[in-house]
What we know:
Elements: E1 2-5, E2 11-18, E3 21-30, E4 35-42, E5 47-54, E6 60-61, E7 69-75, H1 88-91, E8 93-99, H2 100-112
Organism: Gilliamella apicola
InterPro entries: Pam3_gp18
Protein name: Cyanophage baseplate Pam3 plug gp18 domain-containing protein
Amino acid sequence: MHILNTTSDDVLEQTVSLFDMNLRITLRYNSILRGYQFDLFDIDKNKFITKNKGLSVGSPSLIEFNLPFVLVLKDKFGRGVNATSKEDFNSRMQIVIMSKEEFRASIRQGFSG
């Protein structure tokens, strides 16, 4: 599992090496949706995996892709709701990159606990 902390910047770019892949994640704040959309670029293959994909608290983004991982927007305060303002990304939100198995295990644990 890898955690990307967010900020209140309009655009945030980070490079990570995970799951034997070198990736560049570009987050863009969408003021209408009050949320982030992201581009995911595979540096090794020099091609985009996806563009303008949305993030929502607790929902696994990229689950439908043939990738070993998902991105999940997490509410650090435990409210379980999406951002209500841009400032929420500076304090309340973080993006978790986890394997699909880790995600499935977290769902099972949530239902059994």
